[in-house]
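ok so i was messing around last nite and threw this chain in just to see what happens. nothing serious, just curious
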Amino acid sequence: MFMMLFKSNRKYIKVSFSDNGVGVPQENLQSIFDPFFTTKQKGSGLGLATAYSIIKKHGGGITIDSEIGVGTTFNIYLPASQEEMVRKKLMDLISGLLRSKKRVVKVE
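result:
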C-alpha cells in the first residue's frame, strides 16, 4: 500500500477507483506519481503525476492497494465542505470525468 500524507483531523470525501488488471509491482508503488515515470511504451508518465498534484493542492490524499494478478484500487480523499453547492459541484466534476469511461466508482 502507498499512502500520501494528509491531515487526518478533517472530514473527507472518499472516491475509489478499482480494476481487475495486472496490478502494480510493489517496487513501482513509490514511483508511480513521479513525473515521467512509466512502465508503458507509449506512456508519458504525466497522468498520475498530474492527478497527485491536483489532489495535493486541494488538501487531499491518495492511497493505493494493489496485488499482482488481482488488480488495483486508488482511494482519493478530498476535503469535505459543509456547503451543499460545493459537494454538488464536486460530484458533477467526478461524473463528468467518468462519463466517457466504463469504471466502478464508490463514493463514501
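not much to say yet. The two ends are 20 Å apart (CA to CA).
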